[in-house]
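Bit of a strange request maybe. I'm writing a small parser for structure token strings and I need a real example to test against, not something I typed by hand. Could someone generate the tokens for this chain?
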Amino acid sequence: MTATLMDGKALALDVKDRLRNQVSRLKSQGVEPTLATILVGDNPASKTYLDIKHKAARDIGVKSVNYTLGPATTHAELTALISDLNSQSAVHGILLQLPLPAHLDAVYALAGISPEKDVDGLTPAYVNRLFYYKASLVPCTAKGIMALLHRYEVPISGAHVVVINRSMLVGRPLYQLLLGEDATVTVCHSKTRNLPEISRDADIVVTAVGRRPTFTLTADMVKEGAVVIDVAMNRVEGRMVGDADFEPVAAKASYITPVPGGVGPMTVAMLLENTVAATTNQVEALRPVEVPL
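Reply from user aminoacidic:
Good idea to test on real output. This should exercise your parser:
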């Protein structure tokens, strides 16, 4: 068996085309969807990720503004900026780029973002909504993975899914989304015993470790015909690779995401989708309610 590549780049382009039309309609109503991002410190990877997000926003007509704070920024200074952005009706989405410098508490900072503007879906309020399947703004990577599974019509209901990640960005929200579509989900992590045995039982394996060569998803960890979603990004010998030992794993899998070109483009596309959805929700909330006479 040779796996079919799950082309996240192509799907992301389709999503952007749809969003571009929605943005045009909003602008025709006098609304300019606007995303505000906050970078604290000078993490080079964070700067690169934000550049990609801002370029993607411009490509579909979304206005984006970045606020850069120094590495010594205090909680009070960060929360003051977030509060100011919350109060600006012209700002529809707020993204706090993670990780933060070590002296700042990300949960505390995220809690200050208005849930209606939380385009990353990471505020405690939205985590709670996701738990009850009431969230309209879902963490972008998890949402992108689900979109890929749906595009390639991968059966989810009744499937055993092994997620090798327990972070708030990937593993935990993905667990809720998969469970909401009737999958049986096993979440694994660095302390999991017998990981190869567990992953070999999976119909779908989602791996997001990002610590090669310490961890590699090898062919003996995947059963014949499994679907492999590789979220990780590692630089090995000058090239970008995922967690999976790609060629041997692809020889056993039915579907697999490439790295790059798989989940990465979908994460950015889902951020844009959340921004447009947040804008639309805020516009709708301001419309006067017609009361029948």
